[in-house]
Amino acid sequence: MRDAVIVEAVRTPIGRGRATGSLAPVHPIDLLAHSISAVVERAGIDPAHIDDVIAGCVTQTGEQSANIARWAGLAAGLPESVPATTVDRQCGSSQQAVHFAAQGVIAGAYDMVVACGVESMGRVPMGSATQPGDSRGVRINERYPAGLVPQGISAELIGARRGTPRAQLDEFALASHQRAFAATREGLFTPEIAPVKVTQADGSVVEVSADEGIRPSTSLEALAGLRPAYYDEAAAARFPEIGWNVTAGNASQISDGSAALLITTSERARELGLRPRARLHSFAVVGDDPFLMLRGVIPATRRVLERSGLRLDDIDLFEVNEAFAAVVLDWQAEIGAPAERVNARGGAIALGHPLGASGARIMTTLVHALEQTGGRYGLQTMCEAGGLANATILERL
User: In this protein, which residues make up the domain named Thiolase N-terminal (predicted)?
Assistant: First the structure.
């Protein structure tokens, strides 16, 4: 029976998604091309062996439009014969790209695929692909006549219904920065990062090799001083139960970055002299309530564990995307995963959340973390707009 294995996984450093961010001068096509070329070079393969490039990208407009995967593949120097496609499952887009790649390999439709993702949120702002006016049509409005809410309000409602106090959200955020800083200081991210040479406006070239969003000097006092990010009078009147605890400090950062993984079969890896590093053990994708849209990670985790035949205690490391601290804490309370195994190297609150790249970035970190810790199984899950969620279990080889 065919399997799907990861033989290489690499990412760029993550830059702040603003005009002054370290990766802001880099066009998103070139940013994705950097990870694609790095994964090919590190594997040492003939790129003609690649059957497809599947890339996640959320805001597919402007510089990220018109099937960015194809242009990034060409920019990376892949042969013109290598096809490419771009997928959008919101924040889980590149995790879904991994699923599609692995499923195609297992089915025999592919022998080798690059699964990757990119988002340059400083150059292509989040939401800029959404047209003004009613973007959902008549039937969605009829099905949900009370109206849906933005993700920030969803996070507030999740926290309120769980009874999570502001202090706990800020403590989680502080731990994310501390863990990410410790991993950076100890060089744990170094093997997974492909430094990017960035040409500045004055023509000088700077090499970016570290994640820009980590704030080692932050404190509970500093986090407590931040104002609620989503408060407005209309929402407060509609949802009197909300305590307005979500801030820029306990939510994910707006970021730029890309990541890529090379996926093939064990047999093909042997033929090419490649070392399988992790097996793509089990997959799940679920739909959930689009109002409380961020709780899909809970049924997704349960489904992937059920499909895998594994128990919670079998999982050595968990990666739950830190879209909001409230989401991860809600998941943890429901699932019962030990806190020390969850986002052990920090997450999107500290590292950043370049939307379409995050699934592949997190999986790249998970592959390397399993190797460095000697763990066998890792579980990754991500909440996604619209009440969606992906979950994946990796087995270190």
Answer: 5-266
C-alpha–C-alpha distance, residues 19 and 333, integer Å:
38
14 Ramachandran zone, left/alpha/beta (phi>0; psi -120 to 50): beta
Tens of pLDDT, residues 287-296: 999 999 999 9
116 tagged catalytic: no
Whole-model pTM: value is: 0.97
Whole-number pLDDT of residue 189: 98
Which residue bears the tokens 């994910």?
252
Q: Is 368 tagged catalytic? A: no
Task: Report the sign of the C-alpha dihedral through residues 224, 226, 229, 232, in that order.
Answer: positive
- Cβ burial, residue 368 (10 Å; 0-12/13-18/19+): buried
Q: Specify whether the CB–CB gap between 120 and 23 falls below 8 A.
A: yes
DSSP character at residue 355: H
User: Please, are residues 352 and 213 in contact by the beta-carbon 8 Å criterion?
Assistant: yes
Residue 353 annotated as catalytic? yes
Give the H or E element holding residue 51. Answer: none
Q: Which of 91, 116, 281, 368 is catalytic?
A: 91
Q: How confident is the model at residue 137 (pLDDT cuts 50, 70, 90)?
A: confident
Distance CA 273, CA 159 (A): 49
pLDDT, residue 130, reads 83
